[in-house]
């Protein structure tokens, strides 16, 4: 059992601006009934700011401000939780807060999921946690009408709830419960790794939108709030800041320093909690400011509406909202309140940049949002603020900026988190880009610039040679004709882990890839058996994901599943990764690093640690269960 002194030590480590550990220092944690009685007697949560009563159905954290960022503006409502589970859930939430391991936003979301789970248990006639069976848990997870990712979040949330209860009080985490909450669906795990990523903003949309925002910012006849929102978008587009980090910027955020050659450099100082673990962790960091960012910041500083509002409220935030946000409790504005302004902004710019009542997909990569409060406006097309962050990270890495540098200036905890933001470049404007890519791929094969790799490469080479022979073509003289002829019969599609080259049927559409299931079964991801050396980052990413799956199964005692996934890992290493790596080394020897990176800057991360990767791959290739 965990003694009460441990919880008190959590509180002792926190700033007294947030916690009052005297309120809970006498609470024992080795007896649930005694703990509940003491909590009800004290009836106050250990926060100095505001009063949150334990016995209340509503815990309002909007009065509790953490350093540097926004107020939470959120509430935990226990009203819908069944009475016989309510106190236990409150204790769990309090322990999670005092542990200081996760952000309170996460705790808030998980609480609502647990309420839904406990209501389900109540409907099944359960009075205590011991009454809930593993079969009920499985039925509940299966009953959730949601995405695979969301089901896994529910599963993880319930598992953590049972683990915490078992650590502090009675051990109810039986083998049957653990098994019910374990994730043994391998395709599910793989899907979760990549599922639900925010899309990148297409270049064409990005350029047009930034142009419109710049015009608005410099146009003094525009309303101040419109220029303010446009300025925020300019900052997001140039820095990749998270929206709450941007909204919390202050009027003194823009700093300058002298470069070693005498030139003046500008940078933005901002606060973030994302690269610091825990509830109240905040770090002050900086990022580079270019001319567009500087224009936006200086505009926000000088807007008349914002200057007068800062003076009257006694605050110094850069962005001061819309016409009706006049109280100091609004600032710094949170993302929810900002999103309401954004809706009005995108309706406002419709004449300059079409946004209203457009068909879905009008701007590929940009979703339509349903709105209700503007007459004759049903939907607006607008990018998510996170899409600008994705765009910035992708652009930096594609231009050859080292991932460690990007990690630092995007305030990520890990390189893996930085890599998570990278998206493949896609030209959404037309099918022409796909055709051009196909032509380049064919040309590189025919002129021996790129060597096809994988089990499907021999078949493809045979097709090409037969086509040239039957038509009596000469590669040197008839290159364009060969490419056009092959594309007419064998269109090329780039898949996740390779290229699909399939004949056209009578309707002019590509046949269903009959190899997909075979390769998915063999390698564990969507490949085609035809790849090139420059696809090695994707293959290596799959290898790392597959390693995680093997380790997950071993850690949870799923030996049979681990063996199946290990076979897929070894197949990927032998058939795809090692041939790609060998050809990459050949290209390095033949052309040198600089020329290679000009065409494929994403290869730097592999080349940079090639010896380390080889050692890692060899260990798994020889690993046995």
From TrEMBL:
Domain Core-binding (CB) residues, every copy: 76-166
Keywords from the named record: DNA recombination, DNA-binding
Biological processes, Gene Ontology terms: DNA integration; DNA recombination
Annotated InterPro entries: CB (IPR044068), DNA_brk_join_enz (IPR011010), Integrase-like_cat_sf (IPR013762)
Keyword DNA-binding: yes
Claim: rRNA-binding is one of the keywords in the record: no
One function term, GO molecular function aspect: DNA binding
Domain of life per record: Bacteria
Coiled-coil intervals: none
The protein, known as: Core-binding (CB) domain-containing protein
Source organism: Enterococcus faecium
Origin organism lineage: Bacteria, Bacillati, Bacillota, Bacilli, Lactobacillales
């Amino acid at each position: 059992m965990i003694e009460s002194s441990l919880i008190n030590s959590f509180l002792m480590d926190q700033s007294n601006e947030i916690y009052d550990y005297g309120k809970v220092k006498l609470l024992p944690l080795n007896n649930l009934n005694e703990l509940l009685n003491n909590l009800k007697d004290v009836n106050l949560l250990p926060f100095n700011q505001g009063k949150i009563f334990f016995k209340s159905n509503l815990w309002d954290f909007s009065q509790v401000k953490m350093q540097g960022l926004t107020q939470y503006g959120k509430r935990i409502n226990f009203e819908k939780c069944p009475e016989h589970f309510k106190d236990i859930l409150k204790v769990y939430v309090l322990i999670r807060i005092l542990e200081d391991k996760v952000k309170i936003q996460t705790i808030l979301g998980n609480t609502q999921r647990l309420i839904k789970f406990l209501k389900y248990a109540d409907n099944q006639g359960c009075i205590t946690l011991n009454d809930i069976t593993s079969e009920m848990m499985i039925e509940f997870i299966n009953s959730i009408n949601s995405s695979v990712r969301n089901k896994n979040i529910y599963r993880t949330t319930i598992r953590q709830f049972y683990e915490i209860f078992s650590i502090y009080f009675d051990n109810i985490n039986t083998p049957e419960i653990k098994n019910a909450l374990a994730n043994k669906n391998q395709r599910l795990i793989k899907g979760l790794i990549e599922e639900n990523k925010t899309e990148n903003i297409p270049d064409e949309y990005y350029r047009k939108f930034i142009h419109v925002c710049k015009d608005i910012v410099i146009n003094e006849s525009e309303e101040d709030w419109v220029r303010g929102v446009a300025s925020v978008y300019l900052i997001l587009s140039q820095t990749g800041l998270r929206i709450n980090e941007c909204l919390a910027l202050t009027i003194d955020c823009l700093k300058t320093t002298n470069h070693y050659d005498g030139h003046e450099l500008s940078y933005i100082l901002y606060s973030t909690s994302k690269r610091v673990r825990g509830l109240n962790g905040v770090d002050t960091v900086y990022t580079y400011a270019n001319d567009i960012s500087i224009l936006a910041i200086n505009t926000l500083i000088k807007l008349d509406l914002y200057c007068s509002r800062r003076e009257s409220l006694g605050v110094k935030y850069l962005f001061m909202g819309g016409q009706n946000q006049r109280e100091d409790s609004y600032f710094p504005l949170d993302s929810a309140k900002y999103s309401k302004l954004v809706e009005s902004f995108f309706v406002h710019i419709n004449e300059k940049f079409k946004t209203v009542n457009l068909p879905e997909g009008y701007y590929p990569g940009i979703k339509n949002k349903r709105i209700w409060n503007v007459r004759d406006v049903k939907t607006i097309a607008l990018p998510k603020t996170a899409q600008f962050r994705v765009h910035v990270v992708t652009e930096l890495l594609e231009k050859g900026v080292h991932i460690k540098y990007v990690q630092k200036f995007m305030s990520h905890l890990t390189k893996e988190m930085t890599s998570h933001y990278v998206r493949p470049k896609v030209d959404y404007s037309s099918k022409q880009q796909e055709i051009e890519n196909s032509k380049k791929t064919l040309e590189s094969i025919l002129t021996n610039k790129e060597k096809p790799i994988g089990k499907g490469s021999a078949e493809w080479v045979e097709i090409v040679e037969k086509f040239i022979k039957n038509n009596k073509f000469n590669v040197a003289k008839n290159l364009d004709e060969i490419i056009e002829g092959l594309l007419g019969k064998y269109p090329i599609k780039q898949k996740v882990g390779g290229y699909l080259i399939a004949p056209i049927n009578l309707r002019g559409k590509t046949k269903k890839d009959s190899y997909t299931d075979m390769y998915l079964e063999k390698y564990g991801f969507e490949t085609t058996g035809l790849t090139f050396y420059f696809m090695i980052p994707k293959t290596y990413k799959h290898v790392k994901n597959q390693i995680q799956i093997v380790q997950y199964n071993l850690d949870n005692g799923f030996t049979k599943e681990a063996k199946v996934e290990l076979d897929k890992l070894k197949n990927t290493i032998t058939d795809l990764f090692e041939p790609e790596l060998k050809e990459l080394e050949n290209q390095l020897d033949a052309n040198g690093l600089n020329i290679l990176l000009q065409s494929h800057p994403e290869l730097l991360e592999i080349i940079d640690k090639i010896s380390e990767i080889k050692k890692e791959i060899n260990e798994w290739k020889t690993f046995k269960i």
